[in-house]
Amino acid sequence: MNDHWTRRALCAGIAAAAFALPHLHAVAQPDAPYPAKPIELIVAYGPGGGTDLVARLLARHLEKQIGASVVVLNRPGAGGGIGFGELARARPDGYTIGFINTPNVLTIPIERKSSFHWSQYDLLGNLVDDPGAFAIHNGNGITTLAGLAAYARDNPGAVTVGTTGTGSDDHLAMLLFERATGTRLTHVPYKGAGEVRAAATGQQIVIGAINVGEVLAYQKGGTPIRLLGQMSAERSSLAPQVPTFKEQGIPIELASLRGLAAPKGLPEAVRRKLVDAVAAIAADPAFKQQAEAMYAPLRYLAPAAYAAELQATEAGFRKLWGEMPWQDKP
User: Fold this and answer.
1) Cβ(101)–Cβ(256) under 8 Å?
2) Can you give the pTM of this predicted structure?
């Protein structure tokens, strides 16, 4: 009986030791070098928009640069506020990064209480600077901004404008157009440029306030829309045939910066690895060629220059908020 008990105890002890050994081994292992698991890349807008398309292109190049898979997560809603907030709250370990878009990342904290501010991110570098634009269905007879203004004056509120949300560059452009032309338009916010494109295609809205690069990409895919004007200081090389708003007598200049950021407080070695990877991708001829093919106007800004641009732009929007609050009125 004692031998039987001894054998049972011995077997139990061996089994327990076998179970414990791998766990002890895992605890004793030093931290794996970064990156040791997939990285999540948050896009604060729906699939199919300019940010989403660039994010998926970037993900492929980032995987090669840092040796880990990159998963794009769309977190649309609240004009980008849902995705920006999720990014700001994530653990600063390098496994959650995301795109931040101007002006939304700047205007949302100005207009309402929010869970993020651009200073709460570790900036990794800006990649895109896409001018704003007004697009209209090919079947609509309006061909110029002057024609749009004339129609809007004759039909107050009849011109519906689809945007990517309250406080977006698209929305601000609509409000500035109203102020410059003495018109009243109707704002229709969506969760992303892909939804605006669909609404413009179905003629559910009159104007799609969509960035130049996005419109060109949609046109290439067969979407029946055309540009009435672009909001760049000079005609973009992507659309040299399209006059600017200023050329048409409407002094509006607006664009969307789209850059990479991570939650504030990354370990320095991790931050440096990501910053260097973004810089290398921005300089990669293959990435440039692929971005050009999808009409993404690249403008790389290193973190310090990116921060300076955000700070200066935020100051301008705070001034504009004092003059012309952009909240939707019921």
Assistant:
1) yes
2) 0.80
- Alpha-carbon gap, residue 243 to 271, rounded angstroms: 41
Round to whole Å and give the CA distance between 165 and 46.
12
Sheet containing strand 186-189, edge to edge, reads 186-189, 160-163, 207-209, 133-137, 225-230
Joined together, the tokens standing for residue 67 give 């040796």
3-state secondary structure of 5: helix
Q: How far are the Cα atoms of 156, 166, 169, 192 from residue 47, in angstroms, in the given order?
A: 33, 19, 19, 8
User: Could you tell me whether strands 133-137 and 225-230 are parallel, antiparallel, or unpaired per DSSP bridges?
Assistant: antiparallel
Sorted by sequence, the CB contacts under 8 Å of residue 154 that are 6+ apart come out as none
Q: Identify whether the C-beta of residue 270 lies closer than 8 Å to the C-beta of residue 172.
A: no
pLDDT tens digits, one per residue of 125-158: 999 999 999 999 999 999 999 999 999 999 999 9
151 Cβ contact partners less than 8 Å away, ≥ 6 residues apart: 142, 158, 159
In 3-state terms, what secondary structure has residue 110? Answer: helix
Peptide bond into 103 cis (omega under 30): yes
Q: Directed axis angle between helix 104-111 and helix 81-89, to 10°?
A: 90
- Phi-psi map region of 56: left, alpha, beta (phi>0 left; psi -120 to 50 alpha): alpha
Cα pseudo-dihedral 222, 224, 227, 228, rounded to 10: 170
3-54 pLDDT per residue, tens: 444 444 444 443 444 434 343 333 324 467 999 999 999 999 999 888 999 9
Count of residues for the chain?
330
Q: What is the bridge-based pairing of β-strands 186-189 and 160-163?
A: parallel
DSSP 150-163: HHHHHSTT--EEEE
Any idea which residue has 């948050």 for tokens? 42
| Tens digit of each residue's pLDDT (9 = 90 or more) over 163-215 | 988 888 899 999 999 999 999 999 999 988 889 999 999 999 999 999 999 89
